[in-house]
Amino acid sequence: METNTVNTQWTDESILDLVRKLRNDLIKDFLDERYLKEYLADQFRVRELSNVRIEFIKKDLKELLISPVNTAHYETLINQIRHTDSAALTEMNEKLFYRELESLFKKYIY
């Protein structure tokens, strides 16, 4: 009996590696204080944030950098890559990465 299997280049491990790399690249952008302040000003209308709060945000970003991927948060993207066998990111998927970081930012700006 023959079974039909789909050969895919994406294993669960490679999908998580891709998501981790994309997430970590974004985190590294925000570790640049100028980019972080500009983003907070544009997205949250925060013009001034104390150095202490900036340092706390950067500390949390560094912790997130070494943490495993939150598979529940990225579940739709992971499933999409599995089913389409493509890692093409849409604007909606890109927002997932920002949404994860924005929840961290909101702890310190409100």
At a glance:
By secondary structure, the protein is an all-alpha fold. The chain has one domain. The chain has 5 helices and no strands.
What this model shows, in words?
- With 110 residues, this protein is an all-alpha fold.
- It has one domain (12-109).
- Helix content is 69%, strand content 0%.
- It contains five helices and no strands.
- It has helices at residues 12-30, 33-44, 51-66, 75-84, 91-109.
- It is elongated.
- It starts with 11 loop residues before the first helix and ends with a helix.
Share in β-strands: under 5%
Q: Based on Cα principal axes, name the global outline.
A: elongated
Strand count: 0
Note the quaternary state here.
single chain
Average residue pLDDT: 91
Helix content: 55-70%
Total domains, how many? 1
- Count up the helices: 5
Please describe the biggest sheet, giving its number of strands, its sense, and whether it closes into a barrel: none
What distance separates the N and C termini?
A: 62 Å
List the uncertain runs.
1-5
- Cα gyration radius (Å): 17 Å
Structural class of the helices, strands and pairings?
A: mainly alpha
Spell the H/E element sequence: HHHHH
Give the arrangement of secondary structure elements.
Blueprint lengths: L11 H19 L2 H12 L6 H16 L8 H10 L6 H19 L1
Helix pairs in contact: 1-3, 3-5
Distinctive features:
110 residues; mainly alpha; 5 helices; disordered N terminus
